[in-house]
Amino acid sequence: MSAVIEADGVHKAFGPTTALAGASIAVAAGEVVAIMGPSGSGKSTLLHCLAGIVRPDKGVVKFDGRDIGALSERQRSALRRTRFGFVFQFGQLVPELTCLENVTLPLRLERVGGREARRRAAEWLDRLEVADVAGKRPGEVSGGQGQRVAVARALVTGARVVFADEPTGALDSLNGERVMRLLTTAARETGAAVILVTHEARVAAYADREVIVRDGFTRDLAEIPA
Ligand SMILES: Nc1ncnc2c1ncn2[C@@H]1O[C@H](COP(=O)(O)OP(=O)(O)OP(=O)(O)O)[C@@H](O)[C@H]1O
Ligand SMILES: [Mg+2]
């Protein structure tokens, strides 16, 4: 397997708290991986290290085979803007903008022209089955619709990796499953890798593979004896 994104032996401490104590993971293009584990085990920290938001104390994170720790802060932020997409539990959309404008935003930051950005954003809203809320503001749509808009925004730039931290955590199970179905279908079609943190087995069931984080260590579910 050639990994699009990988972490090898990542350590991270916050003061006296060890969040990661040698976490490793490798995810291929088009692969959907669920990261599971108890609260405080280091799942979000691992996601942030992979995304270049948090710098590991030790260990390597590679995107497309290149060590992202060797990049400047500016290069890492360009990487996040152009190659990575993010979906969080809630509150990630800009409240003053319409749903369509929220999805055009990452394209506008890349200097895509207004008309073309709106065309591509509308196409993604349609794919995520939220074309009908294009003109509404995030405060005027349901939680599930808002998350589907967030997925559209994460994928509209042609992201190679989507990082999703509890993307369905604030949704009921029916809406959660709809978000997962649309996210995983879109990712498999575009070849984006998805790294998904979740507490719910029902959500993890949409992944190709589960990785367990426990006390800052990762383990593939397949390696753990039943
Ligand atoms: N910015 C920070 N400053 C201090 N400690 C932190 C920080 N971020 C995380 N930690 C600590 O690191 C450990 C791992 O946190 P992390 O957020 O990665 O856990 P998690 O597995 O995502 O938990 P949850 O399921 O509750 O979201 C915890 O003990 C947490 O308190
Ligand atoms: Mg977390």
Describe this structure as you would to a colleague.
The longest helix is centred in the C-terminal third of the chain and has 18 residues, at 173-190. This protein has 226 residues and is of the alpha/beta class. The model has no long low-confidence stretch (mean pLDDT 94). It is 35% helix and 27% strand. The protein is globular and about 45 Å long. One of its GO terms (molecular function) is ATP binding. Pfam families: ABC_tran. It comes from Luedemannella flava. Residues 5-224 form the ABC transporter domain.
List the helices and strands and how they pair.
Layout: E1 3-14, E2 17-28, E3 32-36, H1 43-50, E4 58-63, E5 66-67, H2 73-82, E6 84-87, H3 99-109, H4 114-127, H5 143-155, E7 161-165, H6 173-190, E8 193-197, H7 201-204, E9 209-214, E10 217-220
Parallel strand pairs: 3-8, 3-9, 6-7, 7-8
Antiparallel strand pairs: 1-2, 1-4, 4-5, 9-10
Helix pairs in contact: 3-4, 3-5, 4-5, 5-6
The protein binds adenosine-5'-triphosphate and magnesium ion.
Domain ABC transporter: 5-224
GO molecular function, one term: ATP binding
Protein name: ABC transporter ATP-binding protein
**Secondary-structure element series:** EEEHEEHEHHHEHEHEE
**What small ligands are held by the chains?**
adenosine-5'-triphosphate, magnesium ion
What do the pLDDT scores average to?
Answer: 94
Shape, per Cα inertia axes: globular
- Let me know the number of strands: 10
| Contiguous uncertain segments of 5+ residues | none
Distance linking N and C termini: 25 Å
Pfam families: ABC_tran (PF00005)
InterPro entries: AAA+_ATPase (IPR003593), ABC_transporter-like_ATP-bd (IPR003439), ABC_transpr_LolD-like (IPR015854), MacB-like_ATP-bd (IPR017911), P-loop_NTPase (IPR027417)
GO molecular function: ATP binding
Organism: Luedemannella flava
